[in-house]
Amino acid sequence: METKRLEQEFMAVFEANTNALFRHIYMRIHDRDLAKDLAQESFTRMWQYISEGKTIDNMRAFLYRTAHNIVIDYYRKKKEVSLDALNETGYDPEGVSKQATEAPAEFEEFRRALTRIPDKYREAVTLRYVDEMLPEEIAGVLDISAGAVSVRINRGVEMVRKELGISTSQ
Amino acid sequence: MSDIPEKYLAGKEKVVLSDAERGAMRSSLVDYLAKNPAVAKAMARFAESRRAGKPVSTYSSYHALLQNLIYTNYMPIAILLVILLGGGTSFAAERANPGDALYSVKTGVNENVRGMFTVGAEAEANWEARLAERRLEEANNLEAEGRLDADVEQDISVEVEKHADKSQKEIAKLEADGKAEAASSARVRLSQALTVHEDIASGEKGDNATSSALQVRQKEGAITNVINRIEVKLSEPVKVETNNSGSVDGDASPNSGNAGQSGTLDDGSDVRSETEVKPETDAKSDDSGASSGATVNLETSGAIKLNR
């Protein structure tokens, strides 16, 4: 019966985090269908880990950590095709967005600004402002120090603000 | 500090999956869970034991389940069961390696029980060194059987480092208490613990062992990295705040440094010559008499006697 309970706990984690994880991955790769697949892959890997009897201290952190690895794998596999190249060859985040989400125009503007900064900073900014994690939590996800996280967030924010045309004095 | 204006972040919660997409994902996961069932274990309780800083290993699900049983509320029951069932299980478990059914008994019961009877910083330091040595022996056994995969190697290297760190902490306590000779002895003991496995792996002692030992080291990537790291720590100068036995303090670092180097580069004969010197230093020490673990010589260590 422990197995059943474990499955129930896992499904509760799924229910509580699906949308947030999907949103996080979507903000990272800007491809809705792919974000859906990678979110599912994150849950599958998490279950693999749990089902082998391994322990997880912090479910949310583990889930995002798994997603972090999966997105990195994705970028490695797609190394030859940069995001810029995708944009140049007709990738249309706005079109996808209109089709699949109802986010306000400003948020879409923010998301498109994110597409133009390196993923390292995009990830930090997304974790901080979209997933609303504290630098300490992000440090656990990225396996770096909280100080390094703060540096990444600050640089990322500066880049995004620049992309949004916001001056530093504002 | 610069920030993202709130207007750009509002409405982010609208980026969600549709009900149909969520439902499809849920069904897919439920299917996956059915095809890949978990072992019966209480995840929350297990996570709790880990948060409490208790050792958790991940060699296999069966092992993890036993670990969970042992490290939570059932430790006394587990020990009682082992006693009631006779020493046979416990004895048999001594030869278990990671992945074996009895390995949890070895690490969770046998070693815990022995650890309970270890009192004093020096005895603790030696016991932790012995535990590091036992993990390395297991790595060698698995390597010999062709069962040492990267995951197990990584787990073992973590355990080795953990025990070596604990040993070093106890050594630091000894140094802080002014027990320089005992600290020096314990350092040598730890250094030996990290080298002995090479002799075991090579199956011989003496000059011929060196090349085999080096081969073993090359194979054990993760473990060797850990050992190298520990050896570097061991070879660092000892800082002793005490004002007595200054000459002994001065000797402590070179002794341990040499021991570490001999472990890295030399054959077993160097290690043995190191141990033969130690009873004399023990005899001179006033502090080390308090603990049976004060003996550094591998052949006379209580831990070794119990094992071999």
Question: How does this structure look, described?
Answer:
The complex is a heterodimer of chains A (170) and B (308). With 170 residues, chain A is mainly α. Chain A has a single domain (2-164), classed as PhyR, sigma-like (SL) domain (Butyryl-CoA Dehydrogenase, subunit A, domain 3). In chain A, 77% of the residues lie in helices and 0% in strands. Chain A contains nine helices and no strands. Chain A has helices spanning 2-29, 32-51, 59-77, 83-88, 93-100, 105-115, 119-130, 135-142, 146-164. In chain A, helix 3 packs across helix 8 (135-142) and helix 7 (119-130) crosses helix 9 (146-164). The radius of gyration of chain A is 17 Å and the shape is globular. By secondary structure, chain B is an all-alpha fold. Chain B has two domains: 39-117, no CATH class; 120-307, no CATH class. Chain B has 15 helices and no strands. Chain B is extended and about 70 Å long. Mean pLDDT of chain B is 65; it is low at 41-46, 53-61, 199-220 and 239-308. The chains are: A mainly alpha (170), B mainly alpha (308). At the A-B interface, helix 1, helix 2, helix 6, helix 7 and helix 9 of A face helix 1, helix 2, helix 3 and helix 4 of B.
